[in-house]
Amino acid sequence: MKPTFCQTYVLYLSPPSFCSASPAFYLFCWPCSCSTCHGWGWSCVLTGCCLCKWLRYQIQLPRNMIENSMFEEEPDVVDLAKEPCLHPLEPDEVEYEPRSSRLLVRGLGEHEMDDDEEDYESSAKLLGMSFINRSSGLRNNMAGYRQSPDGSCSVPSTRTMVVCAAVFVTVISVIMVIYLLPKCTFTKEGCHKKNRTMELIYPLATNGKLFPWAKMRLPSDVVPLHYDLELQPNLTTLKFSGSVKIVVNVLQVTRKIVLHSSGLNITKASLTSTGGRQAKPVELLEYPLHDQIAIMAPEALLVGQNYTVNIEYSANLSDTYYGFYKISYKDEDSKQRWFAATQFEPLAARSAFPCFDEPALKATFLIKIKRDEKLTALSNMPKKATTPVTNGIVQDEFFVSLKMSTYLVAFVVADLKNISRETNGSLVSVYAIPQHINQVEYALNTTVKLLEFYQKYFLIDYPLEKLDLVAIPDFQSGAMENWGLVTFRETTLLYDSKTSSARDKKLITAVIAHELAHQWFGNLVTMEWWNDLWLNEGFATFMEYFAMEEVFPELHSDEDFLNLIFKAMMKDSMNSSHPVSSAVQSSEQIEEMFDALSYIKGASLLLMLKNYLTEDVFQASIEVYLHNHDYGSAQSDDLWDSMNEITNGTLDVKKLMKTWILNKGFPLVTVVRSGRNISIQQEKFLYRVEPENWTSDASYLWHIPLTYMTNRCNFTHCVNAYLLDQKSAVIELPEEVEWIKFNVDMNGYYIVHYAEDWKTLIDLLKKNHTALSAKDRANLINNIFNLASLGKESLENAFELIDYLKEESSTAPLTQALFQLSLIYNLLEKKGEQQLAARVMYRIDNLLGNKIDQQHWTDNGTLSERELRSILLAFACTHDIRQCRTAAIGMFEKWMKSDGTMSLPSDLMKAIFITGAKTNEGWEFLLKMYSSSVSEAEKSKMIEALASTEDVRKLIWLMHNSLEGEVIRAQELSHIVATVSQSLPGYLLAWDFVKENWEKLTRKFHLGSYTIQNLISSSTSQFATRAHLLEVKTFFESKSEESSKLRCVKEALDTIQLNIQWMERNLAKLQKWL
Ligand SMILES: [Zn+2]
């Protein structure tokens, strides 16, 4: 039998227990006369029936019933487990939350629920309703709970209803006053629930007062127009002092000016109004958590007026790689010297001078630097004048800059030399410390050629009168595109004909091409916010390879780009990936945007689009984009709009590209051939599907500009195109074909699975591999190994496909095959499957042995041949294949006997040094030569060789020494750790090193930076056990919340899980047939 609603209702709300204690009861219930009991009872707003006060049962509701059906998750707990009348609730125990309405009743017993008790659940819902303003859906359900007039309760009279309504309104008012008002502080943004929340909205400044701004992004009421910046770095005390005058314009009336400042000791701050003669003192508030300061004006700042903020400050030159930082190096006489340089992108301009440090807040800059008269000072603009200040100190004043973002401001103070050449009205100069000045000529020639190319291609002149390129002795990234003053790591700018290899030449050319492209993409037109960083970096990367192909076709840089795309796709196929354009706010999130996806995926999407739109349309589109937004900022949509201007309705580029920019990952296209019909189908490529993401993963849809070729027409001009904008489609060919290859030259960002047709392609490669281009061959190798990881294709077939490699002579397919086989070899080796790993190496020896034997130990041949030789011999010597080590050790010993004066083939130095470093004597000698070498190209090969030793003490010493920046600079650390973690003796050491030095590492390199990303991924990438998975997870969880939330940490965990999955899927099979 079911108890009536009234009875059960009384059970919970019967006075005087619960109701007497909770004002919420009075909100919804009022006294009435009850006909059943002939006395007074309680009527409630949702039932309308009168409930007798004395009807009270002691029934307990099952706990799970209450928790599951009645209330939401966690929250504030009200314990109703005990008999309500005996234990009335205290008001404090009930937290009324108007915003989230969360309340939980817990501990009501553990009964099984029977039919009768279902009604109690209904009552429980009612109880919930009486407290909280539930959804309308629930409210509708309440209609079913209304008591029939024939029941035990009477329907209240009209008079009662009127009286009750009046009581109801009064009670609500009282509740509002008692419960809401004291907790509500009305601010500009409305009512905030509690004072506690108020603190979150307006945090406390360092002096204990309320800081008038709580967001990471700056308010939009004031914008900067111009900065006058004066700096005096002291390379003896390693401190600097500065003063800045910022002219700002007021857009909305306000009393505060909020801007960025980090780690600066501000000694004076004042404000001057336009035309005002006297600077008025202001109150300065600091909120270091957001790197913000607030200038509190004595009176309201008027809309449309300009004001000048004057700030004087001092700080130490930084010992990290950010802001205005110091570098120690040895000069030609081995004396210690200091070098001061800047690196502001993304968020470090604020640590050199107070500023509005957001990319869209562009302004002009007038910079003055006081320096020792023997040193050189450089900044973005040409020098206007040099004036003496005091004994030995002079001041350089630079011309006022163009309108630009703060992260592009730069200055360098050091002992420098340069060479220069003029082109198209701009003076190009390359600077280096004196002992390196004979290595800058290649960079100067390359820069001039590329600058001319870009000006013609964009149809916009480089707007400054000078362009300086400076080699910085210690630099975290490869280079930085500061407008007019591009800074480089020495290895990416200095070319030494004796020691720089073919690969080094490519690297220098690529980095210069990248940074010069930024002078337009990034400097002239800047992304509005860091979420669209790809507009800067994707474009610069795309232009880097495009310009190299156009200006230096002999470098075959397109093959390098291909290999980079493969690596970016590996990252993008994990759950930890992110859309190219992703919302970011915190500094770690912004730092983490500088990853392979912004750079390489961004670039490869542009490559795909260029091929689809055609060369001319693409070029015209980017001209329009640059013209439309010059000296301003842009979002992704602005780029698509510019493209749509050119396509003029024939193609909606925005619609097409949004599927690529806003989706993470990429599609897997499955192709099934049946006569003339080719069925194609797309799905998301994911190594590992997580059950909770299954639905969202399945709903992905890309608009894929497919390309394909067949045996009927296998030259590049015969490429066919098809836009797949549905989940599946059928292409009808004019005739039957022997084979079909999609994604011609890998110009599209997707992977293709040929279902039953892989055998045809494997046979094609065996019979006539040149029927496909080298890039297509590399593409097939990459795709089949990826499909094998996914379990869609057998690893056996993947190995069969590369059997043709004996005939291969192109770099791209060979390097891709070596990369895939090395991944497998490394996993097996670290898993303790030494025999199986040896079988993989035997297979490689079989495939490439002849090719290795054919190599000469010289620098002869085309750049492409030299590069391939360098890769093959370094691999062979590392893994002791064929006679590599014998040849290498002979050369190393001769070099050692000559005390390093004998010149070695630059392309083979790496192979020779790796072999030489296997002995103790060789390693020590190499380290000695490293310390004295003036060639950065040579030093970088030495570092790799030193880090490839199997002596664990030496490995530990190397990592620690580099972190301290003693013999080996800290800029080399991530390279060292990456090399150490590849080897069997080193991979656990590398992880231990990262763990033990985590605090030091994040202080030096910043959480989320590219270096930290690399350190985490390389030191964990070889793990393939659940124990390691747990260890890595636990380690980062034990660190700060910011650390455990890093995307690269998630990626590291994804990679380990993938490795585990790969082993489970393939180990047994490999043991059988390899
Ligand atoms: Zn860049």
Layout: helices, strands, pairs:
Layout: H1 5-13, H2 18-21, H3 23-28, E1 29-34, E2 39-44, E3 50-52, H4 63-69, E4 77-79, E5 104-106, H5 115-131, H6 136-141, H7 158-180, E6 185-187, E7 190-192, H8 195-201, E8 222-234, E9 239-250, E10 254-260, E11 265-273, E12 280-281, E13 283-287, E14 292-301, E15 306-316, E16 323-330, E17 336-343, E18 364-372, E19 376-379, E20 383-390, E21 393-398, E22 411-414, E23 417-423, E24 426-432, H9 441-458, E25 466-472, E26 479-480, E27 485-489, H10 502-518, E28 525-527, H11 533-551, H12 557-572, H13 587-592, H14 596-613, H15 615-629, E29 632-634, H16 636-647, H17 653-661, E30 667-674, E31 677-684, H18 694-698, E32 704-710, E33 720-724, E34 728-732, E35 740-742, E36 751-753, H19 758-768, H20 774-790, H21 795-801, H22 811-830, H23 834-854, H24 863-878, H25 884-897, H26 909-916, H27 920-932, H28 936-946, H29 952-964, H30 973-980, H31 987-996, H32 998-1005, H33 1010-1020, H34 1026-1038, H35 1041-1044, H36 1047-1073
Parallel strand pairs: 4-5, 8-18, 24-25, 25-27, 28-29, 30-36
Antiparallel strand pairs: 1-2, 2-3, 6-7, 8-9, 9-15, 10-14, 11-12, 11-15, 13-14, 16-17, 18-21, 19-22, 20-21, 23-24, 26-27, 30-31, 31-34, 32-33, 32-35
Helix pairs in contact: 1-5, 9-10, 10-11, 11-14, 12-14, 12-22, 14-15, 15-16, 16-17, 20-21, 20-22, 22-23, 24-26, 25-26, 26-28, 27-28, 29-30, 30-33, 31-33, 33-36, 34-36
The structure holds zinc ion (ZN).
